[in-house]
Amino acid sequence: MSGYAYSSAFGRPVDRRTFLRGLGTAALVPAAGATLAGCGSDSGSASGDLTFVYYGDADLQKDYDKLFTKFRKDHPEITLKAQGIASKSWAEFANAVSTRLAGGQPLDVVQIATEGQRIFASKGLLEPLDPYIKKDQAAVDGYYKDTPPQLKEWLKQYASPDGKTYYMPGGYNTMALYVDGKIFSDAGVEVPEEWTWDEFSELGKEIKAKTGAYLTAAGSGYFTDVMPWLLTNGASTLDEKWATATYASPEAVESLTFARSLVTDGLAPKPGGTYDAPTAMSQGKLASFGGGRWPTNDLRRLKALDGVQLVKWPKKTTDGSPVGWDAWPILKGSKNKDAAWTLITYLISESFGDTITTGGGAAVPARISDATSKAFLEDAPENTELLSELLKVATPIPAPDRGAECQKAIEEAWLQGISGTKQPQQALTEANTKIQGLLA
């Protein structure tokens, strides 16, 4: 997120959205482990070797191994291997998977964030899940009954080009502001439940004058910085169908102009380099920063949760938040699709949801019962439930087939605007032309 603790929205989920970070021994809780009957003679049996692929490097291997310890115990008939593929973008990740499949490597299930879901579906890499869902309808219905309906709807709209089901959804993140109530109190101002851009700026000036702290951070991450300012002014990078670039609309230019003003008014540090927002807040140097669930782990580590609360992003015209989610498909080239589906039933089980909830995951659990549980809400900022409530006003982060290239143009233009190297209108107009060319 440049704010997600990495440089792109969901581009490097290793440190930000991947829900495995910090699982530790919590992954060893009992799991459901329902085994399905065969779903066709060409799918293989629900046994044998199985490879789960994730976007990341070897640093996450131990986390995944811990996560699947109980699955392996419950299913000794399945030999499960977790394999990371380090890539610079979801497009590169998809190409790497395609290359390995073409080379005969046995890959079965993949964890894919929103940015990669349409890429994988459009490349024809995935096996339709509908026959498997039909044979295990009760478990799937139970899962969807306990998950926000938007996740299923968005997957159908954006990651189902032919109307077939290719993914089961996992955890998600929206964007709120982490606000340090102590800094606000020291400045003699209250933390509002809602605020406008102008109110946000005015409070920032009081905070800066009385405490010396910055109001917020300024970055160019697609998910963490660009989309919140656009959406709270009724703007976006693309239209709802992800077919037309809208990055140079008057509302988008107004959004970037305001984000730039936070820097020029001295309310946000100058962009560039790495800015550790949670640490700055823990030191009393930063009053707010944007994030989903993942910064909670940083604040826990810093022992800086006291007085911190989540508040809606300030708005110009409307409430808004980007949303992104993980999902699991079966690769078409899998030689063991029945065993792959058995793994997915484990990933959507109540026990797995409990594991993620109590294990320090960096996303909001997909199951409503977990996202609203005491285990998820305790030892966290006040009003953490806002992250799930924001689904009502959330917009999926636009991620077309050439999404990685679009994201590069989007982030570069935003950085040009907030740093002052180009005027907002020029930066966004040039980027919009690039993006439209990528959509052709």
Description:
This protein is an alpha/beta fold and 440 residues long. The chain has two domains: 48-173 and 324-394, D-Maltodextrin-Binding Protein, domain 2, CATH 3.40.190; 176-322 and 398-439, 3-Layer(aba) Sandwich (D-Maltodextrin-Binding Protein, domain 2), CATH 3.40.190.10. It has 20 helices and twelve strands. Strands 4, 6, 10 and 12 form a four-stranded mixed beta sheet that branches. Strands 2-1-3 form a three-stranded parallel beta sheet. The chain is globular and about 65 Å long. 55% of the residues are buried. The model is unreliable at 1-44 (pLDDT under 50). This is Multiple sugar transport system substrate-binding protein. It comes from Microlunatus soli. Keywords: Sugar transport, Transport. InterPro entries: Bact_solute-bd_prot1, SBP, TAT_signal.
Any descriptors?
440 residues; D-Maltodextrin-Binding Protein, domain 2; 2 domains; three-stranded parallel sheet; 20 helices; 12 strands; 42% helix; globular; sugar transport
Could you say what the CATH architecture of the largest domain is? Answer: 3-Layer(aba) Sandwich
| Total of helices | 20
| Shape by Cα distribution | globular
The tally of structural domains comes to 2
- Looking at CATH, which topology of the largest domain would you report? D-Maltodextrin-Binding Protein, domain 2
Structural class: alpha/beta
Strand content: 5-15%
Number of strands: 12
Radius of gyration: 22 Å
**Regarding CATH, which class of the largest domain?**
Alpha Beta
**How far do the termini sit from each other?**
27 Å
Mean pLDDT: 88
Major beta sheet summary: 4 strands, mixed
Low-confidence stretches: 1-44
Helical percent range?
A: 40-55%
CATH superfamily of the largest domain: Periplasmic binding protein-like II
